[in-house]
Amino acid sequence: MSGSDDSGENGAELPELLAARRRKLEALREAGVDPFPHAFEDVTPIGELRAEFADLAAGEETDRRARVAGRLAASRPAGKMAFLDLLDRSGRLQLQARIDELGQEDFERLTSLDLGDLIGADGTIFASKRGELTLRVERFQLLAKSLRPPPEKYHGLKDVETRYRQRELDLIANEEARDLFLMRTRAIAAARRFLDEHGYVEVETPVLQPLYGGALARPFTTHYNALDRDFYLRIAT
C-alpha cells in the first residue's frame, strides 16, 4: 500500500498498524478461530434484501431471517450495542450487534474486528428508527482477516498512481470503479454469448510472439532458448 494520504495511514505508522493486525490474527488462532475459513454458504446479496424491503417503515420489525457476507466498512460501538456497516458488491447494509444477543465474548470479538475484515452474519431484518435497513446479528463468522488497513474511511481513493497500480484498493474504496469493473465484465460476457450463439469459436493466440505489437508500448522481451530467438510478450489479446 502506498504511503500517500489516500491510503489513510501515515507512512511512519504503517509498520505498527500491520504488526497490530498480525497480532490480532495470531490471537484469533490461539482462541480457536479460523481466520480464513473455506466456505460460507446460502448468502443473500445485500442488494436483494434492499429491494425486498424497500418499503419497510422506520422502526418496523420483521421475522425475515437472512445470511449476509461482506467487508466491514464502519463500526460504531455504543455501550452494550454496536452498529456496523457491511459492504458487498451489491450494496451496503447496517448490522446491529447487542451484547445480550451475542454474549460478552462474541460481542467483544465482533467489535474488535478491523475495518476491511470480511465477515458473515446471520440474523433478522428490521428498520431502525431512522429508517435504515438493518440486520440484527444473532451469529457471525470471520471469513477473512484483513492484514492491511483499507483507504481511509472508505471516502474514496484519489491518487491516480495508487489507483492504477493497486486496483484492489480502488475497487474497495470507489463505488464508481466497482460499477465500471462489473459493467466491463458483463459487456465481455454478453459479447461472448452472442458470438457463441452464432457459431463462432474463441481461439487463444500465443502469449509469446516473434513480432511485437501494442503501438508505442515498450514490449517485454525474453529469449526462447529452444529456438535461440528473442520473443515478445503480447500486449493485445
Write the layout of secondary structure elements.
Layout lengths: L13 H17 L15 H7 L8 E18 L2 E8 L2 E8 H4 L1 H8 L6 E10 L5 E12 L15 H6 L1 H7 L1 H23 L10 E2 L11 E4 L4 E5 L4
Parallel strand pairs: 3-5
Antiparallel strand pairs: 1-2, 1-4, 2-3, 4-5, 6-8, 7-8
Helices, by number, come to 7
State the shape: extended
| Helix content class | 25-40%
Query: From the alpha-carbon coordinates, what is the Rg to the nearest angstrom?
Result: 23 Å
Segments where pLDDT lies below 50 for 5+ residues? 1-12
Roughly how many Å apart are the termini? 29 Å
Number of strands: 8
What's the arrangement of strands in the largest beta sheet? 1-2-3-5-4
- Order of helices and strands, N to C? HHEEEHHEEHHHEEE
Decide which structural class fits the backbone: alpha+beta
Brief overview:
This protein is α+β, with helices and mostly antiparallel strands.
Notes on the protein architecture:
Helices cover 30% and strands 28% of the residues. It has seven helices and eight strands. It has a five-stranded mixed barrel. It has a three-stranded antiparallel β-sheet with strand order 6-8-7, with no helix packed on it. Helix 6 (167-173) crosses helix 7 (175-197). The two termini are 29 Å apart. 17% of the residues are buried.
